[in-house]
UniProtKB/TrEMBL annotation:
Record-annotated Molybdopterin oxidoreductase domain positions: 124-488
Its EC number(s): 1.17.1.9
InterPro entries named in the record: Asp_de-COase-like_dom_sf, MopB_CT_YdeP, MoPterin_dinucl-bd_dom, Mopterin_OxRdtase, Mopterin_OxRdtse_a_bac, Prok_molybdopt-oxidoreductase, YdeP_MopB
Protein name as catalogued: Formate dehydrogenase major subunit
Cited PANTHER family: PROTEIN YDEP, RESPIRATORY NITRATE REDUCTASE
Segments forming domain Molybdopterin dinucleotide-binding: 652-758
Top-level EC class as recorded in UniProt: oxidoreductase
Swiss-Prot/TrEMBL keywords: 4Fe-4S, Iron, Iron-sulfur, Metal-binding, Molybdenum, Oxidoreductase
Amino acid sequence: MKFGKQPAPVADINEDELQVHKPKTEAAGVKAVMVALERAVAQAGVTRTAQSLLRLNQRGGFDCPGCAWPESDKKRKAAEFCENGAKAVAEENTVRTVGAEFWATHSIAELSGKTEYWLGNQGRLSEPMVIREGDTHYSPISWADAFELLGEHLRATTPDRSVFYTSGRTANETAFLYQLFARSLGTNNLPDCSNMCHESSGSALNPTIGIGKGTVSLDDIHDAELIFVVGQNPGTNHPRMLSALKECKDKGGKVVAVNPLPEAGLFNFKDPQTVSGVVGGGTPLADEYLQIKVGGDLALFQALGHLLLEAEERNPGTVVDHSFIADQTDGFDAYRDARRIIDWDETEKATGLTRVQIEKVAGMLVASKASIFCWALGVTQQPHSVDTIKEMVNVLLLQGNFGKPGAGACPVRGHSNVQGDRTMGIWEKPKEWLLQALDAEFGITSPRHHGYDAVESMEAFERDEVDVFVSMGGNFSLACSDTEALEAGMQRIGLTVHISTKPNRSHIVHGRTSLILPTLGRTDKDDKHPKGAQFLSVEDSMSVVHSTQGRLTPVSEHLLAEPVIVARMAEATFGPQHAVDWRGMAEDYDVIRDHIARVLPGFEDFNARVRTKNGFVLPNPPRDTRSFSTDIGRGRFTVSPLEYLTPPTGHLVLQTIRSHDQYNTTFYGLDDRYRGISGGRRVILIHPEDLAEQGFQDRELVDVVSTFQGVDRRADKFRLVAYPTAKGCAAAYFPEANALVHKENVARVSNTPGFKAMFVRFEPHQGGAAAAEESAGELAGTHA
């Protein structure tokens, strides 16, 4: 390993350098520590790395810009972060900078051929930039001129021809100001990254349990008797969850992993902060592993419900919580009737599992008095995702797994404050109570009609119905589906505005005029205010709100904090006489929090409570009082038909995945260590039997064609890699495979893109077979 600061890469990804090794069967360990330190020091040097990592996820420090996994409210470790958290901080801490010289050197035409890996690794944006219609390069612009340009464009169009996108990295105070700006303007066009990930969770949970969030605490994870980890890869996407699962196991709990891919983080955790994790064998995690077919989860949980009801009939009063059901729920009789009979042949076909496997796991549920279901994007990005999650809720309701220790629903959010952003009002379909509260607090008139979500925004781009697109963080071009159509639509917009920390693809496929506004990150000190340094707040996956405050000196004096950027955009749009005191909020974030306290339930006395040792926990009726704030005041059993993915003859079901060196659209490197893939990203992981049946060889280059409702999408030059995934299923990295997801391929109700629901076939790439033979000896290793 190389330790020491390194310059930005000059060369881009060379897919011919792909290497394939045997997948790992354990996660973390000393290797994770070494990789984390190597990446951190390469970006920021030893001193800056130490200053940041010692404050990461600590009280009085800053919240990790990566995942939203919570911290303990008791004792915290000296290293309260994971490998990928350290990588996320390193990306932000970097001392590499991207200023006027970079943009003058590289034209848009040149940059359009660069990968996201190359762009992101060039460094932090250091000054505002603009590109106007007809220009070939971005050039510098003053902050004042940038805001005036934005204001001119917003005033020249109607509110609903403007779209305000939000990334989950945005802090609570920023998100509150941002949605207030949009609604003061007159639009609810507030798409966010939730639309692409856990929108299905909220769409299922709200009508069934009365809240769109999880109902467990970190202590519940520790105290559970049984935890299901469904459609989730914690070893890469939420590595600190492994420590919580280990504590559960240490207390005698059991874990069931449900996933098409045999991910290392599901099987064995080597905690590098313990002796056993360093020199021992680690902690085995999954007691049972169900290698389910992509999209088969609905059938699985219907079968589990059926088996629990059968077990209750055999031994009345031992399995189903009848008193809870009678007192707190509705719809049980219809659910019981629907699950009385099951077609096992159809269930086995849908899941790829045997009846024996499912019955064994059902027995574990019967024996458990406190169960938690955790899930992530493997569940939420299917056409039938909402029904699947409702079916999971059914099984939890059956045994009364709400409002008691060690039990509940746990959608594991991917991005640091994505849940907090929604709490703050970032939503295209706001509730009337929120709009009334905003209007009363600020003297505005919020629009009542619903706005665009992410997919609807993309469709509006195509119809030339958007004049201004503002992106608060994120990388919309690569985060959403149907890449070619999306990017063509973005380039038709009159003005695109990107509030960003680093260059990304969305800056390159810009509108006719485009602004890049560089902002402070989580680790940066925010002290250019009349009252001195300011702090922000975030909400984790378990509804805990706490402070976050960076302490590092920013890499450029030209960076502005996100709340300041929003306030100045509003001032430039509305003028100084607007009803809202934007400047007052930008100068003192306590003023923002006082407004939030008066507008949002659960945030009373916000300023005092957020300054306490561990912050505070938002109200959660299913967890706190075993009650459900649905429209009928009860938890709701639902009945859904059996549904699963049935690809046409000759096709496989393709799901997108992240690599271990990746967080959302940010690439830290090119090493997917646990899966044994390194040096490249354009790969298709495919079962060896499917490879043979499709008539291709391992490592052969192919073009991938997806079909949806008779329309094809295409992505060229991927390498097939034999891999032990579920038969009939394949996997490719996000966002390289996003081009294959038709924009109409979405989850019902939630409108989430079907990133886990593509039907694909392969065609030989020109020269592909020859290339495969030529490179066979160069690619290291083969999968077992």
